Amino acid sequence: MSEPLPSRRIVFQGLSALGVAAVLAGCGGEEQQPQASESSEPSTSKPTSHGKPSPDEKSTKDSPARALAATAEIPIGGGIVLTDARIVITQPQRGEFRAFSAVCTHEGQTVGNVEDNTITCLFHGSQYDAATGNVTTGPATAALAPVKIAVKSGSIVRA
Q1: What is the pLDDT of residue 108?
Q2: Taking the CA of residue 42 as centre, how many other CA atoms within 13 Å lie in the half-sphere pointing to its CB?
Q3: What pTM did the predictor assign?
């Protein structure tokens, strides 16, 4: 004797539950940035976590400006992405430092790297000029918002 086949209702309920589980799995967890390794050292090809205060740091309005990065960390013609601060700092020419929001204006993802005076979002390929933040290659259509910075004693701080 053969086993009875499941009804269409049971099959569709199972498929619906599977679809809901897949959607929920896609919505959960932290967003991962595509990167080659898990090293926390700054480079021109992956985001870093500079700018995150340690538990013992005071974050009061009266405290001195905390360094976002050292000028020596920013390569000429390149830059670093500070994922926690959501800032990208560039050095288009020797001694000229610029900062912009690291949030791509296309879909709000964090940009991924800075090389050859170009800031690139690794998600959909939008590219921005490292000196101005203007879009050079879409799909993004709006420039990265500038962030005011200052150089003090070899450190870059918010202005």
Answers
A1: 85
A2: 22
A3: 0.60
Q: 52 and 22 in contact (C-beta within 8 Å)?
A: no
Neighbours of 3 (CB within 10 A): 5
Residue 119 resides in a domain? yes
Q: Read off φ and ψ for residue 147, nearest 5 degrees.
A: -120, 130
C-alpha to C-alpha distance for 76 and 67, rounded to whole angstroms: 19
Residue 115 host element (H or E): strand 113-115
Name the domain count of the chain. Answer: 1
What domain range is 91 assigned to? 47-53+64-158
pLDDT, one tens digit per residue, over 81-117 is 998 899 999 999 999 999 999 999 998 888 989 999 9
Find the Cα–Cα–Cα–Cα dihedral 74, 51, 26, 140, rounded to 10°: -50
CA atoms within 13 Å, Cβ hemisphere of 111:
36
